[in-house]
């Protein structure tokens, strides 16, 4: 149960994380400009636990998602309240294995409930250590966020693509990692010193596609895409019929 | 052939498009802060032409992607040059139906070739017109970007998800639209008055999955995800074996 309150929004003039830049250029002889942000590439990992036949995801409160819902609530007050209510029901329905996230912030008539900003995601991290390979960074994230120690040789590259092509254009590389209960070395949950408050959640394989397409549960496209990739490419090995 | 030159990067202090904000809040009693950006939700559309059995994508020069490659070239000069070379080969290999994008900017020893910033994407647009439904916005984008006039009743909602959960957290909704040559009313290409220089490209259905997983061709995850979705959900109707 996330408890979010005392919310205050201020302009951000000199951020350590967001550094807007403008690039001026000529495209086919026409002068153009574009505002963008420098950012790091990233890796994400679809983790499948072969002991419990569950996917391992992370769930966390995302301030940017929450503020987006707050904006929506301001512009469409009735719709947004109904949607938030449905979302809580939806999250509770899907799986007993998932801890529900809810609880309203102070002044809930104005601020949406905290669950509106809680997002299900693949285990992921920024490529901000130039000495490490993508596989080594992925391995570290699996360990820190989800508590499994997996050798890099067991990571299978799924593919790579561009994210946020309008603003950041960073490259994301997605991996697949099979783990078992034997690889478990800690509870995961991220690095508290980095301010991470990550909950590790299990999605049973037989519920995965229902979860993926349940729009009441906020999630990234990476979750939906990778579940479908698994069903097409890995499920036959586990003698599971693909129902996508 | 995109020609990009006279590139200049400057700090962006007061952008019309990028407005960084900071939110201060209490999470479970702990004081936290997060820098984020307000942005619009968006829609994207997987377009399938039933006359030619091709997917219809858009291809455009994305300054943010290009600058990302420039950063990479600076930090890994040898690797990036090799990758850019491979990328051009890759783009040429995949399909004759796709026009290749290349050509180096001025000072090509420092700047990557323009093709490093040219990205294949689903037809898409921002949800910035409060009076229109998501379907109506999707319909407008299909018309403006790709030149097909499709009634909103023919749009099938695939799903929705969160993008850029760290920075923007916006909601993206993906649709599927079947078009035929009879729906074609213009060449598409975007709104020149909005500075859009969009090339409409066709990806033949039988090449789609090879295209999707060719990492040498810069593309968004939406392209890969939606092609796979089509193969799982729509291809049987066209008597096509799914090879994903």
What brief labels describe this structure?
globular, homodimer, 244 residues, alpha+beta, 10 strands
Summarize the model shown.
The structure is a homodimer of 244-residue chains. Chain A has 244 residues and is α+β, with helices and mostly antiparallel strands.
Question: How would you characterize the overall build of this protein?
Answer:
The structure is a homodimer of 244-residue chains. Chain A is α+β, with helices and mostly antiparallel strands and 244 residues long. Chain A has helices at 63-75, 77-94, 134-146, 208-212, 221-233; strands spanning 4-11, 20-27, 30-37, 42-49, 54-61, 118-121, 123-126, 155-162, 171-179, 199-204. Chain A is globular and about 55 Å long. The model of chain A is unreliable at 92-109 (pLDDT under 50). At the A-B interface, strand 1, strand 2, strand 3, helix 1 and strand 8 of A face strand 1, strand 2, strand 3, helix 1 and strand 8 of B. Strand 2 (20-27) of chain A pairs antiparallel with strand 1 of chain B, so a sheet runs across the interface.
Secondary-structure map:
Two copies of one chain form a homodimer.
Chain A: E1 4-11, E2 20-27, E3 30-37, E4 42-49, E5 54-61, H1 63-75, H2 77-94, E6 118-121, E7 123-126, H3 134-146, E8 155-162, E9 171-179, E10 199-204, H4 208-212, H5 221-233
Family (chains A, B): Belongs to the Nudix hydrolase family.
Catalytic activity (chains A, B): UDP-sugar + H2O = UMP + alpha-D-aldose 1-phosphate
GO biological process, one term (chains A, B): nucleoside phosphate metabolic process
């Amino acid at each position: 149960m996330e408890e979010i309150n005392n919310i205050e929004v201020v302009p951000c003039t000199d951020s350590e994380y967001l550094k807007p830049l403008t690039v001026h250029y000529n495209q086919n002889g026409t002068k153009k400009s574009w505002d963008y942000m420098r950012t790091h590439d990233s890796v994400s990992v679809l983790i499948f636990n072969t002991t419990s036949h569950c996917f391992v995801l992370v769930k966390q409160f995302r301030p940017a998602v929450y503020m987006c819902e707050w904006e929506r609530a301001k512009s469409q007050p009735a719709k947004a309240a109904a949607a938030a209510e449905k979302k809580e029901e939806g999250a509770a329905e899907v799986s007993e294995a998932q801890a529900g996230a809810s609880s309203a912030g102070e002044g809930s008539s104005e601020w949406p409930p905290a669950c509106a900003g809680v997002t299900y995601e693949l285990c992921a991290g920024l490529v901000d250590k130039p000495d490490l390979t993508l596989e080594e960074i992925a391995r570290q994230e699996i360990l820190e966020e989800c508590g499994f120690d997996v050798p890099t040789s067991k990571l299978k590259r799924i593919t790579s693509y561009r994210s946020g092509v309008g603003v950041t254009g960073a490259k994301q590389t997605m991996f697949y990692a099979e783990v078992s209960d034997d690889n478990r070395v800690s509870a995961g949950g991220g690095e508290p010193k980095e301010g991470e408050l990550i909950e590790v959640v299990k999605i049973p394989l037989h519920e995965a596609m229902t979860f993926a397409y349940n729009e009441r549960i906020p999630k990234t496209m990476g979750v939906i895409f990778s579940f479908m990739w698994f069903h097409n490419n890995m499920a036959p090995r586990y003698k599971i019929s693909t129902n996508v």
